[in-house]
Amino acid sequence: MTEVQQFASDNYAGVCPEAWAAMEDANRGHAPAYGDDDWTQRASDAFRTLFETDCEVFFAFNGTAANSLALASLCQSYHSVICSASAHVETDECGAPEFFSNGSKLLVAPSTDGKLTPEAVRTVATSRSDIHFPKPRVVTITQPTETGQVYSVAEIRALSAVCRELGLKLHMDGARFAHACASLGASPAELTWQSGVDVLCFGGTKNGMAVGEAVLFFDATLAQDFDYRCKQAGQLASKMRFLSAPWVGMLESGAWLRNAQHANHCALRLAAQIVDLPDIAPMFPVEANGVFVRAPEPVLQSLRERGWRFYTFIGGGARFMFAWDADPARVDQLAADIRSASAEIGAIRSQAA
Ligand SMILES: *Cc1c(COP(=O)(O)O)cnc(C)c1O
Known about the structure:
Blueprint: H1 17-26, H2 38-50, E1 56-60, H3 63-74, E2 79-84, H4 88-91, H5 96-100, E3 105-109, H6 118-125, E4 135-142, H7 153-166, E5 169-174, H8 177-184, H9 188-191, E6 199-203, E7 213-217, H10 226-232, H11 241-253, H12 255-274, E8 281-282, E9 290-294, H13 297-305, E10 318-321, H14 328-352
Parallel strand pairs: 2-3, 2-4, 4-5, 5-6
Antiparallel strand pairs: 1-7, 6-7, 8-9, 9-10
Pyridoxal-5'-phosphate (PLP) is lined by residues 62-64, 67, 88, 142, 146, 173, 175, 205-206.
């Protein structure tokens, strides 16, 4: 592969050495199918060790499946799920949560920064209680959010308190859960079950694996028949060890956290180098592995012409995402190009004035 690093998505990166080595180890010989193998047992135990609790662990191919099936397991078809407007389940899963739950409706709660608040949850959950409206049953939060904000332990606790009061379950979309742990310096246990989270979808793909997300149930009764749900949805891997072994590599080596720390540092590294530019404004505080900047369109165009790829699907700003392998020199190159594009466009503007 010769292509230079781009930061358009943290999914552009390849597989980290720890995950790859575990895949190679798992490839030595035969093993029982459908999760009845030692790797899957070891990965599940590694999650229980990391989370300091006896949780139920399942493996899915991607985040859409993990989220959708987890939400479906918490809902009847006449229930609803409260989420924020920018939640991946709402904006980027093609209706899969509704599909796999046979119609449970997503209810979008108002949010200024993509984070749900106890007040917003309460407002939505109590807005209707009549027979004509789908009964609120679950709250889902994304940790960190799609725009890189993290929920503190206190914020999660406040949300779970209102959930408990209103009879709602709390689901966490942790596609970048490792990045939240790294950002907050909090343990996986603190950020989940110790703060009242019932189910976590823990992302492996954006953390350095080729593929795979884990679904962790902290209340075993909620996991009842989840294995059937996974199978029916096409999420039961027959050669399960290749989905589970990378987790062994990630969790036992500590790569899950190191990778996230590195990615977060690269985001801060970029942000720090462009903070003083007058026409480049951060759209969100940098708390995880992403940097979102608002810039004049000619600056963005100049960056594209310099070969940079990035998405602008969130509010028209440019999104840069950093992965486990982000090269700091390449981050610096991006910062330098943003500076120079900004200066170039600034100069053209002042000539015109
Ligand atoms: C990437 C991502 C997912 C998972 O997406 P898939 O493409 O289905 O793996 C889920 N939630 C969030 C917030 C994400 O960023």
